[in-house]
Amino acid sequence: QVQVEESGGGLVQPGGSLRLSCVASESLFSQYSMDWYQRAPGKERDFVATITAGGDTNYADSVKGRFTISRDNAKKTAYLEMRNLKPDDTAVYYCRARRPPFVGNWGPGTQVTVSS
């Protein structure tokens, strides 16, 4: 499985911004799609955003227009730029790598807390 590690979370005020990073160990990183998911307290893990190897993106309706997923293949890193953060965005954010039919493990996650 591809090893990933998320970072960049923290405590922000509503309306604030954060940039999350997901660094992957895979030497063929450029051939993988990268996903971001969130798990809020008491909730299931929900899809946030994905970016394909070709750079195509998709977003959950709840974050569309506020979050931007991107990747830097030279750095083997996927990013999630988050703006206009809301209290409902509070969650642990996870990333994973995919190259169907194979799916990588989740990273340890990074906590994002948006104060009320």
Report on this model:
The protein is mainly beta and 116 residues long. It is 0% helix and 51% strand. It is built from no helices and 11 strands. The strands form 2 sheets. Strands 2, 4, 5, 6, 9, 10 and 11 form a 7-stranded mixed sheet that branches. A hairpin with a 5-residue loop joins strand 4 and strand 5. The radius of gyration is 13 Å and the shape is globular. It starts with a strand and ends with a strand.
* Total strand segments: 11
The termini sit apart by 38 Å
- What is the typical, i.e. mean, pLDDT? 96
Q: Overall 3D geometry? A: globular
Give the helices and strands as they follow along the chain: EEEEEEEEEEE
In DSSP terms (H or I, runs of 4 or more residues), the helix count works out at 0
The unreliable regions are: none
Q: What is the makeup of the main sheet?
A: 7 strands, mixed
Brief digest:
The protein has 116 residues and is mainly β. Helices cover 0% and strands 51% of the residues. The protein starts with a strand and ends with a strand.
Q: Mind sketching the topology for me?
A:
Elements: E1 4-7, E2 10-12, E3 18-24, E4 33-39, E5 45-51, E6 57-59, E7 67-72, E8 77-82, E9 91-99, E10 102-103, E11 110-114
Parallel strand pairs: 2-11
Antiparallel strand pairs: 1-3, 3-8, 4-5, 4-9, 5-6, 7-8, 9-10, 9-11
Throw out a few tags for this protein.
116 residues, mainly beta, four-stranded antiparallel beta sheet
